[in-house]
Amino acid sequence: MNRKSRLRDSVLTIAGILLILFAARVAQGLVIPFLLSIFISIIITVPVGWLKRCGFSNLFAVGIVVLITLFFEVGIALFLGKSASQFSRSIPEYQAQLAGLMGKVDLWLLKHNIELPESSLSEVINPNVVLGFANSFISGLGKVLSNVALIMFTVFFMLLEGHRLPQKIHAIDHAQEGELLKKCTFILESTKQYISIKALTSLITGVFITIGLTLIGLNFASLWGFLAFILNFIPTIGSILAAAPAVLMSCLQLGLMETLSVLALYLAVNIVIGNIVEPAVMGHKVGLSTLAVFLSLVFWGWLLGPAGMLLSVPLTMLIKYGAEANPQTRWLAVLLGPAPPQEETIEE
Fold first, then answer.
1. Are 39 and 318 in contact (CB under 8 A)?
2. Residue 71 within a domain
3. Each residue's pLDDT tens digit in the chain (348 positions)?
4. Which DSSP category does 339 fall into?
5. Do 193 and 220 touch, CB atoms closer than 8 A?
6. What is the DSSP string of 280-322?
């Protein structure tokens, strides 16, 4: 009977998860602004807390920070809309240049007796996918940010109620001596630390990329800098996705030396920020394996589009922390995390 009950509970749990995922995909227009509101709220709790420590009331601190964030978000939405429009108009020209470049490479391969079976190089390697990804990602993110009123109203009320959340959790968990409050506090603080530090280092990355590409003379330098800022939230894979369109564009617009300079710029910025600055400031890694990061990027991107790609790591971190808090689901946290260190055997 006990075995049947466990099987029934497992089936119901899986069915519930699938139902939630289906509902989230159908209701993207509501789910995405809500998740972005949580994401923004976590980031701006830092300046809100600073203003409150300076003696300002909670209402004033929340109001002024939300107002500044609102202007910033409107500016980003307008910038993305304009940049995406200009880039979309330029894509046919770049596609023609790509076709010519790939044709030259095909001829070079044939000249050196290197044949590709039943296809040309442009069919085996399609750089248009990179341009299409950049355009669709930026356009999709711009459409999400255009829903600024709903997002910022949600952020405003979340921050107003945020300081009461510990009291509510304590009331729910009163009989268990605050264990739930401790777990929730750990999860929220860990996520807040990661997102806040990642936002700062991503901003620095985007600024340096924009300045460097402007000096090199690449078109849409600000757009590629913003893409580097956004995709830097995705560890390891994000920097590669951000660099690919800019490197490809430099191949079409500029020469070989400039392309190498663009590649060197991305390598230098990401090595310094990702391998030196972030570990020194953050003090610990994200706690997810590279495979988990990649699969979360694919899964959340499929479920929620560009916004899901942006939030893939924080969402997966929350799932991992939640799984760690329950002994029955700790196996999931182990699978999502990096490989544990091998236990040292003690020789007798």
1. no
2. yes
3. 466 666 666 677 677 777 877 877 777 777 888 888 888 888 788 788 888 888 888 788 888 888 888 887 777 777 777 777 777 776 676 666 666 666 666 666 666 565 555 444 444 445 555 555 555 665 555 565 567 777 788 888 888 777 677 676 666 666 555 666 677 777 777 777 777 788 888 888 889 999 998 898 888 888 888 888 888 877 667 778 888 888 888 877 777 788 888 889 989 988 888 777 777 766 555 677 778 878 888 888 888 877 787 788 888 887 887 777 777 777 777 887 776 655 544 343
4. P
5. no
6. HHH-S--S--HHHHHHHHHHHHHHHTHHHHHTHHHHHHHHHHH
Q: Name the residue type at position 312.
A: S
- Whether pTM > 0.70 for this model: the answer is no
Residue 180 lies in a domain: no
Q: Is residue 273 part of a domain?
A: no
Say how far apart CA 284 and CA 234 lie, in whole Å.
Answer: 16
Please indicate, yes or no, if residue 269 is contained in any of the structural domains.
no
Q: Please enumerate in sequence order all residues whose Cβ is within 8 A of that of 50, keeping only pairs 6 or more positions apart, or say none.
A: none
Split into its structural domains, the chain has a count of 1
Measured CA distances, 85 to 96, 224, 295 (Å): 19, 14, 31
Domain boundaries, position 77 = 19-164
Q: Are 217 and 254 in contact (CB under 8 A)?
A: yes
